[in-house]
TrEMBL record:
Family membership: Belongs to the FliJ family.
Ranges of biased composition (kind: Basic and acidic residues): 69-79
Keyword annotations of the record: Bacterial flagellum biogenesis, Bacterial flagellum protein export, Cell membrane, Cell projection, Chemotaxis, Cilium, Coiled coil, Flagellum, Membrane, Protein transport, Transport
Gene3D superfamilies given in the database record: 1.10.287.1700
Designated name of the protein: Flagellar FliJ protein
InterPro entries: Flag_assembly_chemotaxis_eff (IPR053716), Flagell_FliJ (IPR012823)
Keyword Phosphoprotein attributed: no
Organism of origin: Allorhodopirellula solitaria
Domain of life: Bacteria
Membrane topology: Peripheral membrane protein
Region (Disordered): 51-93
GO BP term (any one): bacterial-type flagellum organization
A cellular-component GO term for this protein: plasma membrane
Length: 154
């Protein structure tokens, strides 16, 4: 029985590579989104710490006599504003990555569908090939059995 040869094997390989490439790109985008989320969380922790320190400073100045230093409060407010701007910028970048992520997901679905289409075609052609070969072998065996029967009658 001659081996089965799928004539679209190169296309199947090409579509598998494309799917794998899209999948890797999707992973890179997810990792970048995770990094942005980590940075946003760290900035939020810094802002929370700053607010706690400011509140502690203000509460301490009420209980004790040292005056509230206006320049310190202004500096803390400016710093908090900078942190908030950084967070906004990171959120904006993350939103752009979210859009890219969705595009890559769609590309991955399409690439996976193409791979499955070619794999189904390969399976069908392999099954057809096997059926043909089995019929050929059966015909050859029937012919051989018939020839033996004719030969044995002589």
């Amino acid at each position: 029985m001659p081996p089965f040869h799928f004539r679209f094997d190169s296309l199947l390989t090409l579509h598998r590579r494309r799917r794998d490439e899209v999948s890797r790109e999707l992973g890179k985008i997810r990792a970048a989104i995770d990094q942005f989320n980590d940075q946003i969380d760290r900035l939020q922790q810094q802002r929370d710490t700053l607010r706690q320190e400011t509140a502690h400073h203000l509460a301490g100045s009420v209980d004790s006599a040292p005056p509230v230093r206006l320049d310190r409060l202004q500096h803390e407010a400016r710093y908090d504003g900078q942190l908030a701007q950084e967070q906004d910028s990171l959120r904006s970048n993350r939103k752009q990555l979210d859009v890219e992520l969705e595009q890559q997901r769609r590309c991955l679905v399409e690439a996976e569908a193409e791979v499955k289409r070619f794999e189904r075609l390969r399976e069908k052609q392999a099954a057809t090939h096997q059926q043909r070969e089995q019929k050929r072998e059966q015909a050859a065996m029937d012919e051989l059995a018939q020839a033996r029967m004719i030969y044995s009658r002589r």
